[in-house]
Each structure stands twice: as C-alpha cells, then as structure tokens.
Write a structure and sequence with these properties.
This protein has 252 residues and is α/β, with parallel strands linked by helices. The chain is built from 6 helices and 11 strands.
Length: 252
C-alpha cells in the first residue's frame, strides 16, 4: 500500500525524544494520571522510546511496552535501566500480539492508532487489545481528528520548527503532505536540515497515517467489542468538537 515500511521516523530514537519530548508533556500527564486511577498491570502498545511508559512505571505500576521498531525499544531499555525501572520490553507486531496474560490498563499513544492503515489492520489491533484486556479493564488511545486538521496538499516544504540535536547541531524541520481521501491516509515527508564543520546536511523520512472520523471510530469500536466510556477533544479534557485537534477515547 505504501512504498516504505512506515518506520523511517523511528530510526533515530535519541533525537526523536528531543523532537517529541517537550510537546508530549500534556499527553504524558494524561496517561500517567489515567494509569494511576485505573491501576496495573499496564500494557503500552507502540511504546516507542518509553516517553510515557517510563513515567507510568515511575508511579509504581507494573508496565510492559510493546513496539515494532527495534532502535526505539533498545533506547527505551537504556532509559529504563538508568531509572532502575523493571519495565518489560517486547519487540512485536501489535496486530499479532499474544502475551498470554491480561492487563488492567492498555493504552496506545503518540497517535500510533493512525499507523494501522487499513480497516483490517485496525481490527487486528483491536482483537489484540481485547485478547489482553482484563474483564473490567480500560483501553485508551488518541487519534488526530480529521476535521480539526488541514488535509489539503502541501507540496512545497513548510517550516515547522527547530531544535538542537544530541550531536549539538541546530536542526530545522520542514514537511510536505499529500492526502489520499479514498484510503483516508495522509502521506507526510519530513525534512531535517543542519550544518556542521563539514558542510550542509539533510535527512528525509516518510510516514503514512490514517485519519478515522468520529462516527467511523465509534462503529469500529462497537463492532469489535468495545464500549466508549468517555471522549475528549484535547488533553485538557474538553469536549470533542468538530474543530478539536484530537479524538481521545477511553473504552471498556
């Protein structure tokens, strides 16, 4: 369906943390608070570098993190070791997950739900979640709200922001986007540009993300055995509206 493995964004975990860490603070706080209220054991699907799993574990909860990207998991392990947190890290495809145990709280964050590009992928993910969710457990995730985002083509690079990399270089981020309305998939290309003593450098990465509409999401969850308990439109727990940036969903 796409001409790449959809993992290019996750090959440089240390700089990924620098790019995502600061703007992730609200969602980290949201899932940490929810995990504390629900209780463990906890399973994070598509855990990446442990940006959320590690602070959840720091609250004293038993945490398992699953991800498909080996570089991200390896970096997560190093971070957890530095914090002396006994998190169980597993390299696996969430669509085929079978860990042989149940969890009180399962979550999926970083808009990772959008990496499941076909209905069949979404349903395989939900089957895995259901297989591992305790009888009265809670499942939570977020996805970008289609009507809260500009889906129009951006064919010329648009500057996003800059940051200082772990190598000490000032990196400028820009992107282009092309949306496929039939597949409901956005194709983003990100450009990272920096200079050092040897000259100018550039790195290009691609990622595809599926946009799911609120009523479509409601039906998908219903027909795959989940009941929506609460939905929010942002990390401040405001009601979901047409202009909300996110669809944050808590299910049983």
């Amino acid at each position: 369906m796409i001409p790449h493995d959809n993992l290019e964004e996750f090959s440089d975990p240390a700089n990924y943390d620098l790019e995502e860490g600061e703007r992730s603070a609200p969602r980290i706080a949201f899932y940490c608070d929810l995990a504390s209220s629900v209780g463990g054991p906890v399973l994070e699907v598509a855990c990446g570098t442990g940006l959320v799993a590690i602070p959840v574990a720091a609250r004293g909860l038993a945490v398992t993190g699953v991800d498909l990207a080996r570089p991200m998991l390896n970096y997560a392990r190093l971070k957890a070791q530095r914090h002396q947190l006994p998190i169980h890290w597993i390299e696996a495809d969430a669509r085929q997950l079978d860990l042989g145990r149940e969890y009180q709280f399962i979550y999926l964050t970083g808009n990772a739900f959008q990496a499941f590009l076909r209905r069949e992928d979404q349903e395989s993910l939900l089957a895995s979640i259901k297989r591992h969710l305790a009888a009265h457990g809670t499942f939570a995730f977020e996805t970008r709200n289609p009507s809260g985002h500009d889906l129009s083509p951006i064919l010329n690079e648009e500057y996003e922001r800059s940051y200082t990399s772990v190598e000490g270089h000032r990196v400028a981020l820009s992107y282009t986007q092309i949306y496929d309305p039939l597949a409901q998939v956005m194709h983003w290309t990100t450009y990272r540009r920096w200079s050092d003593g040897e000259g100018d450098h550039a790195k290009e990465t691609r990622i595809a993300c599926r946009f799911t509409y609120p009523q479509e999401l409601k039906a998908l969850l219903h027909y795959n055995g989940f009941q929506i308990v609460q939905q929010y439109g942002n990390w401040n727990k405001e009601a979901l509206t047409a202009g909300s940036p996110s669809i944050i969903t808590i299910c049983k």
